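Appendix C. Worked example: Barstar (barnase inhibitor) domain-containing protein
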Amino acid sequence: MDFDKELINILYSIDWFSNCGKPIILENVENLSALSKLKKSIQSTQYENVVLEYQGSFTETLFISYREQYNKWWNILVGQFKSLYLPELSKVWECRLTPLKLNAKYVIADLSFNILGIAVIGAYKEQISMPDFFKTMLAVYQSGHLVCGWSGDKETGKFIAY
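Step 2, the predicted output written as structure tokens:
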């Protein structure tokens, strides 16, 4: 079991936060209405719960259908991503977020959690394809925006992006 090299290359090639503050035009994504609302949105319980529920649904399916691969590899992959990829990505994020005055611990923590989840989920692509939720999240980052919240309920809601 290893990371999806194509996905890792995508993460390294993203022009992180290059379009923050500009309108985003992606399905199931709405623009942050005011930058002053970013901290409240990114730290909202609703947003955190939706992300955790989707990750939980993925790991539950993985555990039920591919228990051996889940038990053997999940924690190893998490540790590997944290040591091999996250430090370099974090440096890029901090550098790119500083001019936007968004280089705050809560932003970096949310990014780290989301990207770690996407990378580990992507490592299991042979077992389960990446859920649309995480594909959309990744698309927001690829578009140069920052995922910073959730609007609506879990099933019909939308990401909020800056």
